[in-house]
Amino acid sequence: MNVGAALLTLVIFITVTILLVLLSRRLASGVEVGLRPLPSYLALKSQIGRAVENGRRVHFAVGRASLLGLASPTSLASLTALNSLARDGCASGVPPLVAVGEGSLLPAAQDSLRAGYRRADRADEFSLASVQFVAPESAPFAYAAGVTDLMVQQRVGSNLMLGRFGSELALMSEAAVRANTEQVIGSDDPLALSVGAAVTDHLIIGEELLAAHAYLEGRPSQVAAIQLQDMARLVIVILILLAALAGIIAG
Amino acid sequence: MTTLKQYVTLTVALAFGLLTLLGLLFVPALADLLLGWGTLLAALALLFGVLNLFFVHFRRLFAGNVYSTVLVLSMIVVFLLAVTDSLGLTTSGADGAFWWVQAPIEAALAALLAFFLLFAAVRLLQRRPDRWSLIFLLTLIVILLSQSPLPSAAASAVSWLANLLTVVFAGAGMRGLLIGVALGAVTIAVRLLIGMERPYNR
């Protein structure tokens, strides 16, 4: 990376850091900020209650994005959602059944579930089989086949798929539709989202998935990040409009 | 309450995160070294993943699960083939299992996707018969038609419409989506780097 680009990156990093800290402090001091209601997150939160009612477990697929790769924020958002479900599920005796499609996600997902059991004072009930590695990142259809088998064998009551998926999502969601299972699907991949739009009303689209922290935990720093994203989006929209205008004027 | 263990993990994570960022910007050799360590850890995690897969299905095997039996036997056979390959007793045994078994099965599953998507679109119309579902189905039909052999007069019109839908509408939507994802990724990354987000301290 040349020095100019490196310095620009550093300036962006420092600016974002300062803005995040300032916005977080403002929110921590008691300033109220309302988040746009997202019904899919309400549906996500209600799944544990449904599992308690119908006695069937919740299946949670965290996707195939490595924690070392460029799509790691998507996996981190997915793990946040898992953390929230694990906390409620382990306390209610219906821990989610987790399927991972990439090696580095396995210990992270196991840690989420273990923490859920620990918080519920049920640490001894944690089983490594609750988090299953299904296939590596390079075998999306093997992952889809494994997840489908898991859903059918375990007779799950809800199917939650949040993370990086591709077109193989169609196979997994089809199995859930056949089993008449309620689904919540979230991804940052346009292909997976187009499949998700066809099979469920509970769709978490791109940046909404990356806002999982704010919607499920709601700490000031997490809500501040959403505010900062909105400000940056506004700047980008203005820049795009100015560029388009300049292009039109220049002929 | 923050424990000593949490302080240690936070310090290690922050130090390595910031060192990797500075390495990527100014000292590529340092970044390569740290990312190499990360790759090694990821490889170890993959090995644990394979062991997890084996033991989970090995346990199910005794419950009479046919799929698990096939999976466990397949894993053992491929592992033995890899061993005999490395000893020189067989040539390309593990590769052969991949090319002759796994690749055709994956290709067959991929071929089924078009049907699943079509069924999904029809089901969408049944479940939610509104204008958005209709647009979804019409777009799907136009794109499928654009890939089909048609009379030349119809082909050029369908191709123009498909191009308009994919390049202008879908392209614009996708760029908006990617900009949103990029902004979300940047804020998550910065929060991790300054310790505001600590997924390792649950």
Q: TL;DR of this structure?
A:
The complex is a heterodimer of chains A (251) and B (202). Chain A is 61% helix and 10% strand.
Can you put this structure into words, describing what you see?
The complex is a heterodimer of chains A (251) and B (202). Chain A has a six-stranded parallel β-sheet with strand order 3-2-1-4-5-6, with helices on both faces. Chain A has helices at 3-28, 39-54, 72-92, 105-119, 140-154, 169-178, 190-199, 207-210, 212-216, 220-249; strands at 58-61, 97-100, 131-133, 158-162, 182-187, 203-205. Chain A contains ten helices and six strands, in the order ααβαβαβαβαβαβααα. Chain A has two domains: 1-29 and 220-251; 38-218, Rossmann fold, CATH 3.40.50. By secondary structure, chain A is α/β, with parallel strands linked by helices. Chain B is mainly alpha-helical and 202 residues long. Chain B has a domain at 130-202. Chain B is 85% helix and 0% strand. In chain B, helix 1 packs across helix 2 (28-61) and helix 2 packs across helix 3. The longest helix of chain B has 42 residues, at 152-193. The model of chain B has no long low-confidence stretch (mean pLDDT 89). At the A-B interface, helix 1, helix 3, helix 4, strand 3 and helix 5 of A face helix 1, helix 2, helix 4 and helix 6 of B.
